[in-house]
User: What shape does this take?
Amino acid sequence: MKKNLFIIFLMVTALLQQVVAQDRSISGRVTDASSGQGLPGVTVLVKGTTVGVSTDTDGSFSLSAPASASTLTFSSIGYLTVERPIGNSSTINVQLATDTRQLEEVVVTGLATSIKRSNLANAVTTISAKELVGSTRPVTVDAALNGKVVGANISQTSGAPGGGVAIQLRGISSLTGGTQPLYIIDGVYAVNAEVGNGAGAAAFSAAASTTAGRSTQDNPVNRLADLNPNDIESIEVLKGSSAAAIYGTRANAGVIIIKTKRGVAGQTRVSFNQDLGFAKAWNLLGKEDWTNEKIDLNYTGARATLEKQRLADAQASGQIYDYEEQIFGNTAFLRNTSLSVSGGSEKTKFYVAGTSTDEGGIVDRTGFKRNSIRANLDQKIGERIDIGITSSFIRSQNRRGFTGNDNRGVSLGYTLGYLPSYAQLQPNEAGIFPDNPYGGDNPLAIVARAVNEENTNRTVQAVNGTLRILENETSSLRLAVQGGIDYSNSDAILALPADLQSQRNLPNPGAVRVLKNQFFNYNLQGFLVYDWRLGETINLTSQVGTVRLGLDRNLSFSQGQNLAPGEPLTPNRSSLVTQEVELGSERDIGHVAQQEVNFNDQIIATAGVRFDKSSRNGDPNKYYAFPKASLAVNIAKFGFFDLPAVNLVKLRAAYGETGAPGFFGSTFSPLVNTSTGGRVGFLPSTLVGNLDIGPERATEFETGIDLAFLESRITLEATYYNKVAKDLINSFVLAPSTGVTSIRAFPVGDLQNRGIELSLGVTPIRSENFNWVSTTQYWFNRTEVTRIVVPAFNTGLGFGSGFGRNVFTLGESPSRWYGTPVNAVDNATNPSFLTRYQEAQPKFQMSFLNNFTLFKNIEVSFLLHWRKDSYTSNLSRLLQDEGGTTKDWSQDDDNDGQVNGLQRPNLPASEYIQNSGYVRLREASIYYSVPASIRTAIFKDFVRNIRIGASGNNLITWTDYVGYDPEVSNFGSTSNGAQVDVSSFPNTRRVFFHIGLDF
Assistant: This one.
């Protein structure tokens, strides 16, 4: 008996020793190598197992490792992965260096799968939260991308609060369809419509004098302005068809995938950020004062005598004004306040945030406000089910005023061009504005009394779930489902009271328009994803799935003219009421299959296809195929390659196809209203729909090489692409003998975009007290029409050949300018014998981003953006020349005896097609993180981080362009990227002061 007890005792002791040996406690802290700050959310994993934890808010961790464990891996997005041997240590502290090349980040390759960037076969640009808003505070997400996306042509088309941004990825992809990329927000197909409100319609500024409804000259805001940049974790830009093919028939213009912030396991973290700043126009056109001699050059007879008397009276009373300074020279106040709470456990993670933005405009009674709240939740249910919920609500208000082209005297910039400095337009003591004898209206009265406002309520909701059906050592099968909605409801009002000068002499004085714009997008998708392994070196991922997309819109307005005096300004107080309602409903269905093969991270191949059908096609039940294939070879990972200084040598190539359905209604022949003998009815239109129309298509082949040296301190990404847009849709004008004027939608031809993208990352200095990271990007695109089946035709928007037009003609770019003079001999081969001018697309673009960290507490950064030789049709100086207000009007630059102001309006199109290239200091910032010793001495452990700083947008611009800004456009986002400037809203220089607190 005693012997048995002794044996049992020995066995229990051995088992206890084994249990103790199996688990060992390891703790430590993970910090940023440059700043020394603790890094939350870092994944700490026992190599070769699934045992792991995430660091808490100050970077600390603690885990129980098996006795057999020999190595810990530390990984986090934006940092290089580090492996540390465990040995006999119970405490392991690690510093993570910034991954300037971001080789370890995960990039989307399928609608339900992703891949490490080091294995990626496409040139996908990723913008982190720090790159997006870590330097300064952009007003909109798309504006924050400017100068940061290699291969993108981005322009801020309006300086009005709330923006107006055009993004073109890898050249021209359509002539009439969507020119902006497809935006995906947490898996939801986002609303990004640029919808006019009619500010340029005949009843208001009459910029589009023949248009009664919405026009292309309304200076609209795109709906992406609703999204709060502070909520974003990362942005991935799929620039071409080879990467975007998985999105099929909606991806011709590229895809921008936005992921919002989510919680990480660990102690609850509270962050508060306050930004205060100001904005001023970075450039005003200036003015030239008047003399009697100048009046004699502009006026004759009794009018000249009158103007001289007005000038003398103004000089005698000291009432000489700079009206441009009075209207555009104000200082706008900027405020941005945000509060976020995040945290959770390994099972439940949450992120909740609220932000309030108030950006005043440089013009009185203009501005942009946005209030948003977001709640993201991730929940693990058992060992096999993961659920994620994304929920946000945004309330935004936009007041944009009236700028741009004009035929009534309502537009501010247009009217200012004709306004002499001695004009007396100030209001009297009763607040009544005098009439403007030099234009259609008093611009001070327009600022004070005209109304152009829009209020938007928007919600984006998404749910995703993953069910792990099968899991073993060699394979796993999971079901990934996702659904989401994006609902936007905007209410807008335009109003010009009846007693304004521009209204009084009209047949129906006074106009008001009340608008409602509703958009509802929804998408559902489900995928089966099978990960499996062949042997020890081949890993495969197979996926099949289906996608359903719905887009509904309801655009309506009620307009009243001949308004009764006083308020309220509503259509029911008018005698002439018109209404318009546009209803649209679209449905897409897609089926996707994709196979990925990874041979030991050395050779990675992908092939897939998507089949889509769309209600916008002539045959809504016909499926179109969009294939893709790619190959990446990591040469540096082969055994024969043994150069310790070389971290990455990757050759890659990819091919893909995407589509863009014909514009809405292109299949239908509209009817025309008529009235005969008091009886109303309809007549067939002379516009003919096309029942056979299919989608525009794009095919792209890209190839490149990625290199990394010296622990990724030097990286290079070089890409060449050839993107062909086929079956471009445009109207086809027919001969009058056919009995109709044109076919609404017809595949008129093809064009080719070719370009090179280079990105060089260098860390010249990496030391304990000084760190310098530099990124230089270079890119260009060349476009050429390669096939045309109709006669050459004008494309883009403009005001005629006297100011420059773009033409779709064989062998040329649709964004090249043509204009006067007309010469049948010298220009025999040119369209309409017009003179051939420069290209609207830039010759090349470069960006130069530098980040410096000094003594771990001071961060300095700046971003320079060089846009070389792009050309814009600029009419802004013409208005001033005609009005005699140009600051060099009386000079004679060519010494021919005629002053500039009289000579320039008679020049051909070369005067107006101006170089809008620039070098711009887009962003600059300096931040100081209060050292932990000072922080804890004051706040103990209640405050975990204090960061203060100052930053700016558009601080300095070097350009020869004569206008308010070289980026702005009277027509907003144009299909061919060619811009036209008619005294648009000036862009601003923005300066911020920041404080951030983490608790």
